[in-house]
Amino acid sequence: MNPFQRLVVAPGQMAGNQVDLTPAQQHYLSRVLRLRPGDRFIAMDGHGQWWLVALTENAAQGQVLTTIAVATELPITVTLLIAMPKTGLDDVVRQATELGVSQIVPIHSARTVLNPSPQKIDRWQRIAQEAAEQSERQVVPVITAPLVWSDALQTWNTRQSICYICQARDHHPHLLTCLEEARNQRLGGGGWKDELSATQAPQPSRPILAISLATGPEGGWTESELAVAIDAGYQPVSLGDRILRAVTAPLVGLSLIASVFEAERGNGEQG
Amino acid sequence: MNPFQRLVVAPGQMAGNQVDLTPAQQHYLSRVLRLRPGDRFIAMDGHGQWWLVALTENAAQGQVLTTIAVATELPITVTLLIAMPKTGLDDVVRQATELGVSQIVPIHSARTVLNPSPQKIDRWQRIAQEAAEQSERQVVPVITAPLVWSDALQTWNTRQSICYICQARDHHPHLLTCLEEARNQRLGGGGWKDELSATQAPQPSRPILAISLATGPEGGWTESELAVAIDAGYQPVSLGDRILRAVTAPLVGLSLIASVFEAERGNGEQG
């Protein structure tokens, strides 16, 4: 186990080699964790940078000791577009964060009944932050404000990612089959890499690949919602022969995406 | 959506073409769902058999109209051996059932603190039954009484299944890589099929394959628990580069197992 507590800090909190701690962070480190001056913790900026920090005599500040190299992020950018279920989105946010999601876009679909308050979205963002710390991620996923489906398709489409939409009962190809094909195409030719690098900032030493995954509400997407997604380039996919709840489907889809591209990375390193 | 409510019935409730309903089932059908005589529902025996049933004038009985062919079960038998987490096993049972698990064995490991009452195990069995109905499964998974790890290894080992144990931080091969190898070996040669058919009743028209998946508690398996599992033939595997909670890891593992063997089935049917 990594022995150091992880805290997310805002850009404005970093000043040279000093970290200015918020009152809530001071309370947490000094009162809850009972850290003393000289004790160490990890500051994360939520965008891939970690620092090992020592608490100073002035408990309002930390002293940066060193930067930390970690590699717990997926080699691809994954966006989850989730038609909001009636309940259980807290758990989905927590577990999707553990599974490496980059961004979660709550969707108002025809069969969505939830209409979350701004406080609820703040709560989901806090859960994502906590889960990023627990799962030792370098990047905290962003939870956007909810969008209606047609508006979401203006942004998350095949211009910037490979797009899948999950729908039960329709005998679509399995998501795993589609992902294995995408992985093999990428290893073979890199057509997507070239296409995507035109619209995204490239990461060093890795081909770029972005995936958008859309999952439906209780009762599924309507036929017209599925049709507009297919028009926008989404591949309809199955997650298996059983009927998954709206809170389970995203976890299955994200498990497959993370695993297909991480297992590839692992094999590449071994081979 | 399948319009018929699904109910699990015990063998003793089936008498010829009659289903004898328990008082709780009568209450549920007549009072909660407000079914009238002649209305239909599905009776499942929890072992792969479904019947379409009409409620009779005597609300204590149903009349079997026909048997129903469904195929929502995995082509393999999957056992989850889960070192009991402090909280959250209710959700794991529900979601593991959605993912097609055949059997869940709660494990007392060195770092397990939960000591469930018999009532708790009954509750998990009820959750599995509800989830099997919701996800349209033919088989209700069995939740066994908790076992200590060394005792569980006497039963769930390589004599009857391919065995994987999940452990973070140790650079083991990814479970997906191992499953793809197992699938390819099975398609290529069938060595496991022959080996396994010696100890298991064969299913018609499918090669047999059984998988046991072990996931650890908060803090993971101890080194000695991992060592005895490896001695028993377990392959240690990774589920990716992030630290998953004890309640998330089983869902990722089961998602991969179900998908690898269902995507194979789907491809076979298409090809």
Automatic annotation (TrEMBL), chains A, B:
One of its GO terms (molecular function) is rRNA (uridine-N3-)-methyltransferase activity. Its main location: cytoplasm. Residues 21-57 form the Ribosomal RNA small subunit methyltransferase E PUA-like domain. GO terms for biological process: rRNA base methylation. The keyword Transferase applies. It holds the Pfam family Methyltrans_RNA. Its EC number is 2.1.1.193. It catalyses: uridine(1498) in 16S rRNA + S-adenosyl-L-methionine = N(3)-methyluridine(1498) in 16S rRNA + S-adenosyl-L-homocysteine + H(+). NCBIfam families: PRK11713.4-1 (NF008697), RsmE family RNA methyltransferase (TIGR00046). Specifically methylates the N3 position of the uracil ring of uridine 1498 (m3U1498) in 16S rRNA. Acts on the fully assembled 30S ribosomal subunit. Belongs to the RNA methyltransferase RsmE family. This is Ribosomal RNA small subunit methyltransferase E. The lineage of its organism: Bacteria, Bacillati, Cyanobacteriota, Cyanophyceae, Oculatellales.
